[in-house]
Amino acid sequence: FKDFTADFYFRQSWRDKRLSFKPSKSIDALFVGSEVSDKIWVPDTFFANEKWAQFHQATTFNTFIRIRANGDVLRSIRLTVTSSCPMNLQYFPMDRQLCTIEIESYGYSTADIKYKWGIDGKGSVGISDVVELPQFKIKGFKEFSKTENASPARVQLGVTTVLTMTTLMSSTNAALPKISYIKSIDVYLGTCFVMVFASLLEYATVGYMGKRIAMRKNRHTQVAKFAQSHRISTMMAAAAAAAASKSSHQPNSIEMMSGTPNPPIAFADSTTGESPRVPMSSTNNPPV
């Protein structure tokens, strides 16, 4: 930036005895239009550091002249002036610049005309009280911070922010003048870009590590389940083998006739006291 533009009301007052008149009870001042300025003397004021200027003409020439009875003349004009101002943008946009509008007489010297602020300079220059900076309300992305598995939304937000920062840096550098030193806004935008890109890399790293940890936990869980099932099957097999070996060493209480040993040769009846009987045959036929 090497210039600035100001829209203001430029008022000048001077005394011309030739324009004095005798006031009446109802008229003590005359208010005339811009056409009278071509018929009276006016200061040849110009702006020494002006680069461009405009007289406003909507709907008519924005100027008026007031002539008092004692010859005091007040001329007011609305102007838009672009003036040059060498600026130091090292701390932009937190910089402070001191720019001036140089007012001089084009043809007269200081012996003929002198400029001074009216009322000792108090209230001669003022700024409107309604000038305000735009207000913005920044909303956070709480819905993305609540859900850790919202990968599409998080990636889209990070990539969009990176592209936005890149576009903002390009447009800012294109709008500012080409200077040889680093500005504060370059440091700020560069830091913001690095932080946004680092947050995107952080999410990618955390997501990758989280998946690896989850896979490792699943693997350990599966190994533990397999070891537990193998332990249970081994215990069941050992119990079955022990039961089988125990049953092989104990005789059955009921045996089939085909598998019984030979009956005894003689036996006694303990209830009757009879003498022992000797079977005649080992066949199944009853004795005669």
UniProtKB/TrEMBL annotation:
Region annotation Disordered: where it falls in the sequence: 249-288
Protein name as catalogued: Gamma-aminobutyric acid receptor subunit beta
Domain Neurotransmitter-gated ion-channel ligand-binding: start-end pairs: 3-149
Record-stated family: Belongs to the ligand-gated ion channel (TC 1.A.9) family. Gamma-aminobutyric acid receptor (TC 1.A.9.5) subfamily.
GO MF annotation, one: chloride channel activity
Record keywords: Cell membrane, Chloride, Chloride channel, Disulfide bond, Glycoprotein, Ion channel, Ion transport, Ligand-gated ion channel, Membrane, Postsynaptic cell membrane, Receptor, Signal, Synapse, Transmembrane, Transmembrane helix, Transport
One cellular component term from this protein's GO annotations in UniProt: postsynaptic membrane
Organism per entry: Euroglyphus maynei (Mayne's house dust mite)
UniProt-annotated location(s): Postsynaptic cell membrane
PROSITE patterns tied to this protein: NEUROTR_ION_CHANNEL (PS00236)
Transmembrane regions: 187-209
SUPFAM superfamilies named among the record's database cross-references: Neurotransmitter-gated ion-channel transmembrane pore, Nicotinic receptor ligand binding domain-like
Sequence ranges of Polar residues compositional bias: 269-288
Main location: membrane
